């Protein structure tokens, strides 16, 4: 058990959470970001992108609904751009990448609870059996029978592959995301050759446009996650501009609605730059979401750099996150 989880359980049992829950919330917007919804233990690919089961997502949504409005669309845009005053804590729930389980698992939960979600699909993956780079990296490392894996791009990396495959996967994911990795295709080819195994036929893995339109009709919102899920900081300004403007154009054409929000792929501090933010604004996005932790406190919100958190999988830890951010009495 982690120290954070242990502390959260102690605070809950001692009644601290109940006291915090009774306090007024601070003005701001807390954004919870998910990728995949389902059982991580059953995947052959990257387990790190699973944030919750369908049942756990429902529990999270009900917890939030009892304490703050869950918003999306124009309401969220107005709150984050200062067009509407923030008088309390609001929540938003986002989903990156557009995996099929967003439609089969997350969407039914949100619809049944009357909660809006914001989905950021990758244009090239829509309706496809694509295996993105993070899933391919995880599959190759998880299934190789070789004791050592190595790549030379962008700089040499050599990893011992033991019984803990998750520990061996993480260094390769970090290495791929380095800003100086200007040749992602070469990186993947080197890893394929080092691992000595190939990908299986996966079947459809991402939601299609018909499913997206059904979700929109039920009150869900969509935004851009670029055309190819490239790491924008690795690309030229011209390529970044194309990724953003073309993805927005296709989304508006397919879904028949104004697209005003963007989620930067990966979303870390090294995954996009100040120039990327300017390009996003020029491309017509009024909101652009990072993924670096923290929340959006009234008076310090930057619409081109909206903060999101990864919700803790255990409810007691999520309570710790939410109360710690929105009550300002202590830091979890």
Keywords:
332 residues, alpha/beta, TIM Barrel, five-stranded mixed sheet, two-stranded parallel sheet, 41% helix, 13% strand
Structurally, how many domains make up the residues?
A: 2
Number of strands: 11
Q: Give the uncertain stretches in residue-range form.
A: none
- SSE string, helix = H, strand = E? HHEEEHHEHEHEEHHHEHEHEEH
Number of helices: 12
User: What spatial form do the alpha-carbon principal axes imply?
Assistant: globular
Radius of gyration: 20 Å
- Could you tell me the mean pLDDT? 95
CATH class of the largest domain: Alpha Beta
- The helix/strand class is alpha/beta
Can you identify the CATH superfamily of the largest domain?
Answer: Glycoside hydrolase/deacetylase
What is the fold-level CATH name, i.e. the topology of the largest domain? TIM Barrel
Strand order of the largest sheet: 8-5-4-1-11
Distance, first to last CA:
16 Å
Largest sheet: 5 strands, mixed
**CATH architecture identity of the largest domain:** Alpha-Beta Barrel
Helix content: 40-55%
Binned strand content: 5-15%
GO biological process, one term: xylan catabolic process
GO molecular function, one term: hydrolase activity, acting on glycosyl bonds
Pfam family, one: Polysacc_deac_1
Main location: secreted
Give a structural overview.
With 332 residues, the protein is α/β, with parallel strands linked by helices. It has 2 domains: 24-128 and 204-235 and 252-272 and 281-327, Alpha-Beta Barrel (TIM Barrel); 133-195. It contains 12 helices and 11 strands. The chain has helices at residues 3-13, 16-22, 54-65, 73-80, 100-113, 133-143, 165-176, 184-195, 209-217, 237-255, 274-282, 315-327; strands at 28-34, 36-37, 50-52, 89-97, 118-121, 148-151, 157-160, 221-222, 261-263, 287-289, 296-297. The strands form 4 sheets. A 5-stranded mixed beta sheet has the order 8-5-4-1-11, with helices on both faces. Strand 9, helix 11 and strand 10 form a beta-alpha-beta unit. The longest helix has 19 residues, at 237-255. The protein starts with a helix and ends in a 5-residue tail after the last helix. Pfam families: Polysacc_deac_1 (PF01522). This is Putative xylanase/chitin deacetylase.
